[in-house]
Specification:
Elements (H helix, E strand, L loop, with lengths): L1 H21 E3 L4 E7 L8 E3 L11 E3 L6 E7 L3 E4 L3 E4 L5 E12 L2 H7 L3 H15 L8 H4 L9 H19 L3 E12 L2 H71 L2 H16 L15 H4 L15
Antiparallel strand pairs: 1-4, 2-3, 2-5, 6-8, 7-8, 8-9
Helix pairs in contact: 3-5
């Protein structure tokens, strides 16, 4: 009984080992290329997505090694980053650029025949990327770095690099697709940075000087307008004052002509005005009524003097 159990257990393990050796499963995000004695036929590719499911689903049969071998490839997007490299622009400015490439396998069989492994694919794509990145030399420094977003052409540069890189890998039959290409970093060499900063300082100084000039011109305009307005106001005031003086002189002439007819009565009215000014604050004075301005006010008119109402 014991030996029978051991035999059955060994038989089960052997069956599991044989099943493992003659079957394989493909993950949903993978593709497997099956080679027979190192060669891959047209039907050697099995994908894990819904487009390639057999009677057993994603479980497939194979001959054990070394008759057949499996080469698995990830079908998801792969991201590769390129190191910093110096590049010259169209206006002979030096920039240091770092790019990245997002790619994925679209034809596993062609990929297996052309490059074989992911490492070889990245090496070949990196070599092609260096050639495609020469497009940066067709743009000026202001096209790549500018405070005005409307003048930037980074999107155009990235699109052209991606298109050229895609054309190159397609011509070579790599079986991959370039999803996107981007400029990850864009720096300036130390010598160029100093020149750029010096140019930025000069630009800022020029803008500040222009702002000061415009401010001084505006201030001079305001001062001139104010002076002209003041002159117009003073001229108007002077003309108005002369008119009032003329009216006053005419009124005074009429008063003088009237007072000249009875000089004593005019003097008496002037004394009344003076007394009104003196006593308008309810002030009490104790003085001799026969002296000063009150002498004529409280003194009886002399005999034979003309009455105040002209004799009526």
């Amino acid at each position: 009984m014991k030996y029978r159990f051991t035999f059955l257990l060994g038989l089960l393990l052997a069956a599991m080992l044989i099943f493992y050796m003659v079957t394989y499963q493909v993950a949903f995000n993978e593709a497997v290329v099956v080679t027979t004695f190192g060669k891959a036929g047209d039907n050697a590719v099995h994908r894990g997505d819904s487009t390639d499911t057999g009677p057993l689903g994603n479980l497939h049969m194979r001959w054990p090694y070394p008759v057949q071998r499996l080469h698995s490839y990830d079908l998801r997007v792969q991201v590769m980053e390129e190191r910093l490299e110096e590049q010259n622009t169209l206006d002979r400015q030096s920039v240091i650029a770092s790019t990245f490439v997002a790619w994925r396998i679209t034809d596993p069989l062609a990929f297996f025949k052309a490059v074989g492994t992911k490492e070889n694919a990245e090496q070949k794509v990196r070599s092609k990327l260096r050639d495609a990145r020469s497009i940066l030399g067709e743009y000026t420094f202001d096209d790549l770095t500018n405070t005005d977003a409307a003048r930037l052409k980074l999107d155009e540069v990235e699109t052209r690099i991606r298109q050229q890189l895609q054309q190159q890998v397609a011509d070579q039959g790599f079986g991959i697709e370039i999803e996107s290409v981007g400029l990850r970093r864009l720096e300036l060499p130390q010598s160029v940075s100093e020149k750029v900063f010096a140019r930025m300082r000069k630009t800022r100084e020029r803008l500040a000087e222009r702002a000061r000039s415009e401010g001084n011109a505006a201030a001079n305009t305001i001062v001139a307008d104010a002076e002209n307005a003041a002159k117009r106001i003073m001229a108007f005031a002077e003309a108005r004052a002369q008119a009032l003086r003329a009216q006053g002189d005419a009124a005074a002439s009429e008063y003088y002509a009237t007072f000249k007819q009875n000089e004593q009565f005019a003097i008496f009215l002037r004394l009344l005005d003076t007394a009104s000014d003196v006593f308008k604050h309810n002030t009490t004075f104790v003085i001799d009524a026969k002296e000063g301005i009150f002498q004529d006010l409280f003194q009886a008119p002399a005999a034979g003097a003309a009455p105040a109402n002209g004799g009526n």
